[in-house]
Amino acid sequence: MSLEVDASILKLKKPMEVKATQINYRRAAVLMRDVTQLDVDKEALNSDNPTAEDNIKYFNTQIETLDKINQFLKDVLKLNNKQMDILEESNPYEVEMFAMQVVGTLLYVSEGSKATEEDLKSDSNE
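RESULT FIELD:
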């Protein structure tokens, strides 16, 4: 099954297709785990006595998560070099929100996701 996501962050007017496959589902679950780890590391900084090690761990996780988000979007959406350049020049918060939209589409088949015309045709032929 193919789903669609708004890809305006990539300067595209039409939605991009996301294939609802096991590998993409796994990629989405792994990214959610990594983003959750970032939240855990950030919480350590909110403790009464955050250490320099806590700061370093948080920033290392943040850097790794940014890289993982970009790789996730490249792999799942099959982005080309030009699209990757646009993504890398975008606001990090907007890129993370876009990635979460893609994750939501894959993991939860979010409200905004729609089956493509091809999917609708294949469903009617069964």
